[in-house]
Amino acid sequence: MAILMDLPNEILISILDILSAVELQPVIILQLINRRLRALAKDILYDTQRISNSNDDDDAESTQINPLWRTKFKGLFDTSDCFTDAEKKKMAYLTLNGDYTLPFRRLPWAQTESERDAYLRPGASWREISLTFGRAPITHLDVVKSYSASDGDAVDYYQVDLPSSGMTMGLLYDVLLCDKATFGHETGSWELIVGRRLLSFDVLFEYECFIPDDRDMVDIGKEARQAAVLYVRGGPVSRKFTPEIVEDNSWVINSQMDQRLLPWQGPIQNFVFTGYYD
């Protein structure tokens, strides 16, 4: 019986392609075996543009976060997922209360030093893999920030400058640690909403809050299928709250991603200057 490595590259690529559609993690692990498998697996993992961008009406779920990422990075897509069942029963509102590193510290692979070092090493393969591997890539990402305080509410907006191949897991990770993308220690929560795209900055500014299902504010149609909104909420932190002491500075907010956060890129605002009043 021929062993796996006796097969020609064309057949191996077909096998890896099918395997990646069923489960992504074994394909990632194959990169560690030898140079040949690493090169073949890399072709499969990094070829994010091979997914056709279907415009069919039936393909409403063409873009979804890969299940492996939802497992390995649980809590980064929706901060409410980082809380334990006991905490969810105790808390009336699932807020980080300023402890913005909590979702990172509670990642499944962050619990032991060896696993954490493996994931956070420079050049880790997960960083370059599409966030929606196996489906159409996310090619547009809005960051909407909403801050609520007793003296009023405020909203802010950025658009992430994405590569043509789309959003990767590493890019999302870096955006979440960008000081422009959150409110730092005043961060309450965040959620990545796939299939949404900000339609009107005017309406967002007028409402002073973000409403994901408001058709005047958000596009949820065909044009938004490969888009997503990172919705970040913040506010004053309780005086009684004391963040857990963290010796590791791996999850400290930085400004390395600031230059990739762009202002409003949509149509110009519907404001016409008609002159001064007497």
State the separation between the terminal residues, measured CA to CA: 93 Å
Fraction of residues in helices? 25-40%
Strand order of the largest sheet: 3-6-1-2-7
Structural class: alpha+beta
Number of domains: 2
Q: From N to C, what is the helix and strand string?
A: HHHHHHHEEHEEHEEE
- Report strand %: 5-15%
- Provide a count of the helices: 9
What's the main sheet like?
5 strands, mixed
* Bulk shape: globular
Strand runs, count: 7
Overall mean confidence score, pLDDT: 81
Integer-rounded radius of gyration:
21 Å
Q: Which spans of ≥5 residues are poorly predicted at pLDDT below 50?
A: 51-60, 271-278
Structure overview:
With 278 residues, the protein is of the alpha+beta class. The chain folds into 2 domains: 40 residues, no CATH class; 196 residues, no CATH class. 26% of the residues lie in helices and 15% in strands. It is built from 9 helices and 7 strands; from the N terminus they run αααααααββαββαβββ. The strands form 2 sheets. A 5-stranded mixed sheet has the order 3-6-1-2-7, with helices on one face. A hairpin with a 2-residue loop joins strand 1 and strand 2. Helix 1 packs across helix 3. The termini are far apart.
